[in-house]
Amino acid sequence: MASSITDWPKLVKNIYDNLNPGGWVEFQDFDFGFFSDDGTVTEEHHAHKWSKLLFEGCEKFGRDPCPGPKIEGWVRSAGFVDVVSEVYKVPFGPWPKDPHYRDIGMTNLIQMLDGLEGFSLRVFCGIHGWTREEVLVLLAHVRQELKAGTYHSYDKFHVVYAQKP
Description:
Elements: H1 8-18, E1 24-35, H2 46-60, H3 71-78, E2 81-91, H4 99-127, H5 132-148, E3 154-163
Antiparallel strand pairs: 1-3, 2-3
Keywords: Methyltransferase, Transferase
Protein name: Methyltransferase tdiE
GO molecular function, one term: methyltransferase activity
């Protein structure tokens, strides 16, 4: 849901108010970025530049591009109990050695490559004032980096579920 929600605490409170006692709620969202445990992702990468500019643009637009880490707090503040919060590393690309995570990484890479232009144009052109051509050049560099497999990046997927008392 990420940048589509303007007021996450209000949404969570509305769900709480409309849920029957004993009912459960679950949220899933990303702390999107290009994280790396081995130092292969740096600020010099085009993907890092792209994500930083995307986040800045979303925030100027009044949207939170990375709600994942905040969901647990919003759920607790709304009054939910028995809150469980889990974080999963979701790789970009087939770099993991484990076949299961390699498959997940390929799926995540494909959806990222397919969605880059859609994620970017409104923010980069409308907020940052870039031309479409400038955006497409940056995205070509980002795609090239993602496909090269030279860094071991992942994003963090947050799952929070809880019960209304």
